[in-house]
Design goal:
Radius of gyration: 23 Å
Strand order of the largest sheet: 12-11-10-13-14-18-15
Number of strands: 18
Length: 426
C-alpha cells in the first residue's frame, strides 16, 4: 500500500509554518471510514512524517493549518474566560482545545465548545484549571473554503492539503453499469421503533450517526420531528431529498451542537461502530434528550461464527472486533445513566427489505453481484486477492450444490438469528 509522503518543497514550507506558529494544527480525515476526523498538535515536521508513514487506511486527507489556531491560551480561569468573551464574536462556532494533548495523542474539544458566549460561559466551569486554547472553529475562520459536498477543505494559501486516493477496487472496475442497491426502511423495523419509542406525534427524535437517512424519513412520515446527526464528513440523501420534518446537522455524538433537553428520544440504527467514545457519546445524548428513551439496533460481533460467510472469508467482521460488544454497551449504559437496559432479540426475517449486513444470508448468489458486494462496508478495504479467492470458492460451491447441502435450510426457515438486537434504554 502506497504511503503519503512530503515533497522537499512541502517539508520546507511546513518547517517555515512551524517556526512561525510554534506548532502545526492538523485535521486527519480517513474517507469512507465511517468516523470523524482526528485532530493533532504536531511540534515537529518529523512527527508528522512519522504519522504519515504509519497510516494504514487506504484513503487519506490531511489538512495542515498555517496560522496558530485557538490562540486564546492559558490556564482556564475567570481572566481567560473574560478575554475570550471580549475577543471572540458571539453566535459563532467556538472551540476549546485541550493543549495538554500533543502528538502522538489526539487533541480533543473540551465540553465548553458551542456556538454562543452563553454556552461558553455556562460550560467553562467544567474546565477550570486546565491548560486550554480557545478560538473560532477553523470553518468560521476560513469561511467559504470548506467544501461540504467533498467534506474537506479547498485550497488556500494558509492551508496545505495532502491527499491519498485509493485505487479503484476490483468491484468498482467490474461493476460498471450496475446500479447501487441500497436497502429501504423496512416496515418491520419502523413499527418496532414506533412501538419502543412510545412517543406522541410531533416529538423530536435524534437519529445518531446514520449511514443513510431512510429511518429519519420513515419516522418523519409518522409525524415525528427528526434531527439526523451526521459526522462533519458524512453526506446523506436527505440533503438532496429534503423533508419538512427532517433536519440535518453536522456533529459528533459526544459533542452534539444541541441544547440540553431539546429532544425527546434518540435512535441509533446499526451505527454503534461509529461511536468512537462510548461514555462521552452516551452522556451527551442523555444531556440532549433528558430522561427520554434511547433505542439502538446493533449486532454483537461475537455472533459472527454463525455467519456462513466466514467459511469463505475468514476475517469477515474483523473491522468490528475491537468495537464494544453488546454486553459492554449494556454495562456502559447502566453505569453512566443508572437506567434500565433491555435487550430484545431481532431474528432477521427472510423478506426483510433493508439489505444490511447479514440480511442476504439466505441468498448467497447475491454476494457474487459486484454492486451488492461493494455496498457492504466490510469488503471495502479487504485484500482483493483474498476476496476473489473466496468468491471463486462460493461460486464453485453454489454450482456443485455443496453450499445448499450444508446451508440450504436457511432458504426455507422463516427467520434466522445472527446476533442483531434492539437495546431499549429508558
Amino acid at each position: 500500500m502506497s504511503k503519503l509522503t512530503l515533497t522537499p518543497e512541502q517539508r520546507q514550507k511546513l518547517q517555515a509554518w512551524l517556526t512561525e506558529a510554534g506548532e502545526l494544527y492538523v485535521d486527519w480525515y480517513r474517507p469512507h471510514s465511517a468516523g470523524p476526523s482526528d485532530h493533532y498538535f504536531f511540534d515537529s515536521v518529523a512527527d508528522l512524517e512519522t504519522h504519515l508513514a504509519h497510516e494504514k487506511w487506504p484513503e487519506l486527507v490531511v489538512t495542515i493549518f498555517r496560522r496558530l489556531q485557538f490562540p486564546i491560551r492559558g490556564i482556564a480561569d475567570e481572566a481567560l474566560l473574560a478575554r475570550a468573551l471580549q475577543e471572540l464574536p458571539d453566535h459563532k462556532e467556538l472551540v476549546i482545545k485541550n493543549l495538554a494533548e500533543r502528538y502522538p495523542s489526539q487533541c480533543h474539544c473540551w465540553a465548553g465548545s458551542g456556538n454562543s458566549h452563553a454556552e461558553l460561559r455556562n460550560d467553562f466551569k467544567d474546565i477550570l484549571g486546565e491548560h486550554v486554547g480557545i478560538g473560532l472553529d477553523p470553518e468560521e475562520i476560513y469561511e467559504g473554503i470548506w467544501d461540504t459536498r467533498r467534506a474537506y477543505w479547498s485550497a488556500h494559501e494558509d492551508i496545505m492539503i495532502l491527499e491519498k486516493k485509493r485505487p479503484p477496487s476490483l468491484f468498482e472496475r467490474i461493476s460498471n453499469g450496475f446500479a447501487q442497491q441500497p436497502g429501504v426502511a423496512d416496515p418491520l423495523i419502523i413499527e418496532k421503533l414506533v412501538m419502543l419509542l412510545n412517543l406522541p406525534p410531533d416529538s423530536t427524535i435524534l437519529d445518531i450517526c446514520p449511514s443513510t437517512d431512510k429511518y429519519s424519513l420513515a419516522l418523519a412520515d409518522r409525524a415525528y420531528e427528526m434531527i439526523a446527526v451526521v459526522g462533519s464528513h458524512d453526506f446523506t440523501s436527505c440533503e438532496t431529498t429534503p423533508h419538512k420534518r427532517v433536519r440535518i446537522i453536522h456533529g459528533e455524538a459526544g459533542n452534539l451542537p444541541l441544547p440540553t433537553n431539546s429532544a425527546a428520544a434518540a435512535i441509533i440504527i446499526l451505527a454503534s461502530h461509529r461511536l468512537h467514545d462510548y461514555p462521552a457519546a452516551f452522556r451527551d445524548i442523555c444531556r440532549v434528550i433528558g430522561r427520554g428513551p434511547i433505542i439502538m439496533l446493533m449486532f454483537d460481533h461475537r455472533h459472527f461464527e454463525k455467519y456462513w460467510l466466514t467459511d469463505y472469508f475468514p476475517d469477515f467482521g474483523l473491522p468490528y472486533s475491537d468495537t464494544a460488544s453488546l454486553s459492554q454497551v449494556i454495562d456502559e449504559f447502566k453505569r453512566l445513566t443508572q437506567r434500565n437496559v433491555t435487550a430484545l432479540d431481532f431474528p432477521l426475517p427472510l423478506d426483510l427489505l433493508d439489505k444490511f449486513g447479514a440480511t442476504r444470508l439466505t441468498h448467497p448468489e447475491d454476494y457474487l453481484n459486484p454492486a451488492i458486494l461493494d455496498s457492504i462496508s466490510d469488503f471495502a478495504w479487504k485484500d482483493e486477492a483474498k476476496v476473489a479467492h473466496g468468491l471463486k470458492r462460493l461460486q464453485d460451491d453454489l454450482q456443485s450444490g455443496q453450499w445448499d447441502a450444508k446451508y440450504g435450510s436457511l432458504r426455507t426457515q422463516p427467520s434466522y438469528d445472527v446476533g442483531y438486537r434492539f437495546l431499549v434504554i429508558n
